[in-house]
Amino acid sequence: MTQTIAPRFRTLVLLLLAAACALLAGAGPASAHAALTGSDPQQGAVVDRAPAQVSLTFSESVSVDDDALRVLDPKGKRVDAGSPSGIGGTTYSVKLHAGLPDGTYTVTYQVVSADSHPVAGAYTFSVGAPSDTTVSASPQAAGGGFVGGLYGVGRYVSYAGFAVLVGGAAFVLACWPRGSGVRVVQRVVVSGWLALTAATLLLLLLRGSYTGSGKLGDVFDLNLLGEVLQTKTGAALVSRLLLLAAAALFVAVLFGAYDKREDEEKRDLTFGLAVGGTVVAAGLAATWAMSEHASVGLQAGLAMPADVVHMIAVATWLGGLTALLAALYRGPADAPVPAEAVHRFSRLAFGSVIALVVTGTYQSWRQLGSWSAFTDTRYGQLLLVKIALVAVLVGIAYLSRRWTAQLAQAATAGVVRQREKHEKGDKGEKRDKGEKAPVGASAARKNGKAAASGTAAKGSKSAEGGKTSGTSAKAGGAKAGGAKGAGSAKKSGASNGAGTSQRAAQLARQRAAVDAARQKRQRDADPNRFGLRRSVLAEAGVAVVLLAVTTVLTQTEPGRTEEEAKATGASSSATAPEASTGAVTLDMPFDTGSQNGRGVVRVELDPARTGANDLHLYVERPDGTAFDIPEVKVALTQKAKDIGPLPVAPDHITTGHWSASAVQIPIGGDWEVAVTVRTSDIDQVTVSKNAQIG
């Protein structure tokens, strides 16, 4: 039976690792987690005079360096001056050289979002009139290439190492304290620590190139590494390394002093190790929570603790499962995992699943924001895959609980049978004691006869004493002659004795190996334990794929951000003016915070020139369907000339459509169009965008 299990085990592990690698390879570059929501000049705009600066507005704060924003002329030469800087909120700008000639200019940007992922893109605007350009305006691939692939593998290994380290230690402390002395369990936990440490160092080295040039040669650039250490992600990685030093001390105590204690002494040390281990595990989990998705967006103060609980629950379940699987398959035959330890882990895993469901539901609502995002965004689709895998894992875990219950019942029945056997043995001994007296009397009679015959024999031996002494005298010479061979006989006997002891030791080792093999066969022949091993192996297989999906999910743009980007024109909040009519169309997403308070308001201004203009306003839900709201107001402001706000009261035409005619715009320039949307008696919000008019 065991000869067929091992090849199947290795084959299944290889297949699951291949599936995980395929998922990671298909992940591609990390998606932008901050979207470009506005720009000045706008994408595709044609302005009369060259602007003094270019400004970009993102959906969340980003990190910029000296080359984060670049502006290129039609020949590909840089025309920006100085370093980019923030000008308020989430808007960043870079100044341009004076006296730029007419033509089409390309704006490229590569920044790092607040949740640590690189964001890149490009667009064009024209001065005077559009022209040919040698610069490609296609978005740059941020976080891709060979360095991006290595970075994704490093993230996967770090998650896996954290799970094995935390879950394996929790399995020993909470479920199987005697497992601290089992070599295979020790190797599992130490392997988790080594994997997490190596992956953290790799991520720290790759970080600069991953968010920048993407070149492998920049991995060992010390100047770039110094810049990484000054970022939030760099600080998180360094903090993780410091916490791993504390984790190494914890592991040394767990498999050193703790293992050498007796059971009573272990209970006193268990509480201290549990508290210290929980603190270290929470700190390690916080290095992810404080630098990724949970640290930005809605309710970050609540999302980060929830993310820490989520990660510890995942690690306790999947890491403990790994330790249990290793103990079931590779544990010593003379110290198998007891049924009580498996039962304890079953309860621990059940609590972890409850924590996963609660925190996962909250995080899903926070990152998606709507039911449609489950199917309309890549993040939602991956989340559905993750939910399905968790459901499969829970189903297999239910089967494991059944095998655990049957194993516990079999162990209880074995204890009862052993107790009954001892009781029968005690009764047999009592019966034997009652029958010893008559047996002793017959033995005494036999001893008397033997004594009489012995006395008679002495007489005959004394009569033959003379003959015996003569024979002894003759033998004396022979003894003297054989004295020389005594030394060689002793040496030969000593060598024979040494060979006999070596042979005895070899036979003892062989007998021990045979006994261990017999015990292993007896252990594996148990149908309940065999069924448990298969179900735990299936759980571990699904867990490998689940961890890969989770890694890809953390590199994917959240559904809420993706929907907002779609509502604002994928990468910009404003579309280009139409060449044929000169009309301007502005799309502005809004959220009043109430039920049915989210949507997109679209303003069309035609012909977008000085004098009279027609204004059309449309209100749509995130899915594109028109709907009515109680009130909508428009105001036009030109801050450069201190004109406005000029109020506009559009008339309701039909569902989701308002219109105003003869809207007077006195002078041309950059105008702010502000729209106030009211969805209930108390819920309203004002959104605004700029438009070039005249």
From TrEMBL:
<dbReference type="GO" id="GO:0046688">
    <property type="term" value="P:response to copper ion"/>
</dbReference>
<keyword id="KW-0732">Signal</keyword>
<feature type="signal peptide">
    <location>
        <begin position="1"/>
        <end position="34"/>
    </location>
</feature>
<keyword id="KW-1133">Transmembrane helix</keyword>
<keyword id="KW-1003">Cell membrane</keyword>
<feature type="domain" description="CopC">
    <location>
        <begin position="33"/>
        <end position="127"/>
    </location>
</feature>
<dbReference type="InterPro" id="IPR032694">
    <property type="entry name" value="CopC/D"/>
</dbReference>
<feature type="transmembrane region" description="Helical">
    <location>
        <begin position="269"/>
        <end position="288"/>
    </location>
</feature>
<feature type="transmembrane region" description="Helical">
    <location>
        <begin position="382"/>
        <end position="399"/>
    </location>
</feature>
<feature type="domain" description="Copper resistance protein D">
    <location>
        <begin position="340"/>
        <end position="413"/>
    </location>
</feature>
<feature type="transmembrane region" description="Helical">
    <location>
        <begin position="188"/>
        <end position="206"/>
    </location>
</feature>
<dbReference type="InterPro" id="IPR007348">
    <property type="entry name" value="CopC_dom"/>
</dbReference>
<feature type="transmembrane region" description="Helical">
    <location>
        <begin position="308"/>
        <end position="329"/>
    </location>
</feature>
<keyword id="KW-0186">Copper</keyword>
<dbReference type="GO" id="GO:0005507">
    <property type="term" value="F:copper ion binding"/>
</dbReference>
<dbReference type="Pfam" id="PF04234">
    <property type="entry name" value="CopC"/>
</dbReference>
<feature type="compositionally biased region" description="Low complexity">
    <location>
        <begin position="440"/>
        <end position="477"/>
    </location>
</feature>
<dbReference type="GO" id="GO:0006825">
    <property type="term" value="P:copper ion transport"/>
</dbReference>
<keyword id="KW-0472">Membrane</keyword>
<feature type="compositionally biased region" description="Low complexity">
    <location>
        <begin position="486"/>
        <end position="516"/>
    </location>
</feature>
<dbReference type="GO" id="GO:0005886">
    <property type="term" value="C:plasma membrane"/>
</dbReference>
<protein>
    <recommendedName>
        <fullName>Protein YobA</fullName>
    </recommendedName>
</protein>
<feature type="transmembrane region" description="Helical">
    <location>
        <begin position="536"/>
        <end position="554"/>
    </location>
</feature>
<feature type="transmembrane region" description="Helical">
    <location>
        <begin position="341"/>
        <end position="362"/>
    </location>
</feature>
<feature type="region of interest" description="Disordered">
    <location>
        <begin position="412"/>
        <end position="527"/>
    </location>
</feature>
<dbReference type="InterPro" id="IPR014756">
    <property type="entry name" value="Ig_E-set"/>
</dbReference>
<dbReference type="GO" id="GO:0042597">
    <property type="term" value="C:periplasmic space"/>
</dbReference>
<dbReference type="InterPro" id="IPR014755">
    <property type="entry name" value="Cu-Rt/internalin_Ig-like"/>
</dbReference>
<feature type="transmembrane region" description="Helical">
    <location>
        <begin position="156"/>
        <end position="176"/>
    </location>
</feature>
<keyword id="KW-0574">Periplasm</keyword>
<feature type="region of interest" description="Disordered">
    <location>
        <begin position="557"/>
        <end position="597"/>
    </location>
</feature>
<dbReference type="InterPro" id="IPR008457">
    <property type="entry name" value="Cu-R_CopD_dom"/>
</dbReference>
<comment type="similarity">
    <text>Belongs to the CopC family.</text>
</comment>
<dbReference type="Pfam" id="PF05425">
    <property type="entry name" value="CopD"/>
</dbReference>
<feature type="compositionally biased region" description="Low complexity">
    <location>
        <begin position="567"/>
        <end position="583"/>
    </location>
</feature>
<keyword id="KW-0479">Metal-binding</keyword>
<feature type="transmembrane region" description="Helical">
    <location>
        <begin position="237"/>
        <end position="257"/>
    </location>
</feature>
<keyword id="KW-0812">Transmembrane</keyword>
<feature type="compositionally biased region" description="Basic and acidic residues">
    <location>
        <begin position="417"/>
        <end position="436"/>
    </location>
</feature>
